[in-house]
Design a protein that fits this description.
By secondary structure, this protein is an all-alpha fold. The chain folds into two domains: 1-62 and 236-404, no CATH class; 80-227, Helix Hairpins. Helices cover 62% and strands 0% of the residues. The chain is built from ten helices and no strands. It has helices spanning 11-27, 64-135, 141-146, 153-227, 247-257, 267-281, 285-296, 302-307, 328-343, 381-402. Helix 2 (64-135) packs antiparallel against helix 4, helix 2 runs parallel beside helix 10 (381-402) and helix 6 (267-281) crosses helix 7.
């Protein structure tokens, strides 16, 4: 397995140490009487041979518990919006069901009216036939119509026309009844579907309500966890997980910071790359964006400008620069996939590899806090990059709280 050398902040000061040692050794060969040292101008911050190294930076406060609270607040806001949306959809679904009920009622009435019309047409046809029969003096009605009656021809024609008319009325009424039945069946089917949709939507409202209850419980737990001493909190932000910001929100937040960017593509496109590729690989793309702000000094260092490298990948203490990547998107993907290789013992990737040589110590660091001393030599690296993310989330909570 290839392990990419971590990025080491402060490598310039460290690089001076061997030179100081060399100068001290050379001084041993020079006549002491010829060497004058002005102690009033000696830089006491420059390492000197034999001088003990500066003490390590004390552990920085881990903002993870506060980040948990902010994420929980966002979870509550999201759940509240989901409940409102589902309730609106349920209202609409019940309105559609009520309208479908009305259609069924009207179709049923139309069917009943058609049946009434058919009954009336049949009755009229029967009355006409009976009258003809009686008028023919008991002779067969068919014979009367065929001209076998002693009646005159004009009378037979009148009876025939009347019977034809009423027979056609019966046929028309029967067809109208069939059409009305079909219309009612269709209306009932649509009504059943509308009622089922309303019931399904009610279930969605119930599920959204349960999710909101869960979000409130998580917020209460997160607040209680934040109020405990930091050393007692075991919650850490995982490298893998959902991206909370949208690309538009991420770009909007960055623009409001007024730092500018030296990246070779607009910050909106870069933000979209972090969100999209982070989501594809299951890595928190917005947190990776925060990491890059720390690594590049707000996308202003040489790695950003000439290498599309936003995470110090391959930028070791003695390296003049980090690994170059062909495009900003490839640089972002390399960072996302390297983070995944730190988080998972046996990572599998959903996108083509940005660079197969870029691999981390697999599974060493499931959380961002654990990157300290591994991704970078700074043992407080995790808290430092998480501090950016906490600021970003504070802004996002305010933004979404103000949204209607």
């Amino acid at each position: 397995m290839n392990w990419t050398p971590p990025h080491h902040p402060g490598r310039g000061a460290l690089a001076l140490l061997p030179l100081a040692v060399v100068l001290s050794l050379l001084a041993l060969t020079i006549d002491a009487s010829a060497l004058t040292i002005d102690t009033t101008t000696t830089n006491t911050t420059t390492p000197v041979a034999g001088q003990p190294p500066a003490p390590p930076e004390p552990p920085a406060p881990d903002p993870s518990p506060h980040i948990r609270v902010l994420l929980a607040r966002l979870g509550v806001l999201s759940a509240q919006h989901a409940v409102a949306d589902q309730q609106t959809a349920a209202t609409s679904a019940h309105g559609a069901a009520a309208a479908a009920d009305g259609v069924v009622a009207r179709a049923t009435q139309a069917q009943q009216d058609a049946q009434t019309q058919l009954d009336a047409a049949r009755q009229q046809l029967g009355s006409t036939a009976a009258y003809a029969f009686m008028h023919a003096g008991g002779a067969d009605f068919v014979a009367v119509l065929q001209g076998d009656s002693t009646g005159g021809g004009s009378e037979r024609e009148l009876f025939a026309a009347s019977v034809d008319h009423h027979q056609q009325q019966v046929v028309d009424a029967r067809n109208a009844l069939a059409d009305a039945g079909d219309a009612r069946d269709s209306a009932q089917q649509a009504d059943d579907q509308a009622r089922q949709a309303a019931a399904d939507q009610d279930a969605q409202v119930s599920a959204a309500g349960s999710a909101l209850d869960d979000a409130h419980r998580e917020l209460a737990t997160a607040i209680a966890d934040e109020n405990r001493p930091t050393t007692d909190s075991s919650w850490k932000l995982s490298i893998e997980g959902p991206t909370t910001f949208t690309a538009a929100e991420l770009a909007q937040w960055y623009d409001l910071q007024a730092h500018g960017s030296q990246a070779t593509e607009p910050i909106a496109d870069l933000a979209a790359s972090y969100v999209d590729q982070g989501t594809a690989e299951g890595v928190r793309g917005d947190m990776a964006f925060a990491q890059s702000i720390h690594e590049t000094g707000w996308f202003a260092n040489n790695d950003t400008i000439i290498a599309n490298n936003f995470a110090g990948i391959g930028h070791c203490s003695d390296c003049p620069g980090g690994f170059p990547f062909a495009t900003p998107d490839v640089g972002v993907l390399a960072q996302i996939q390297l983070l995944k290789s730190y988080a998972e013992p046996k990572p599998t990737y959903n996108l083509p590899r940005a660079d197969k040589k870029v691999n981390g110590p697999a599974g060493c660091c499931p959380t961002w806090t654990e990157l300290g001393g591994v991704w970078a030599s700074d043992t407080n690296y995790g808290p430092h990059i998480l501090a950016y993310y906490a600021q970003m989330l504070e802004w996002l909570v305010a933004l979404r709280s103000a949204a209607p």
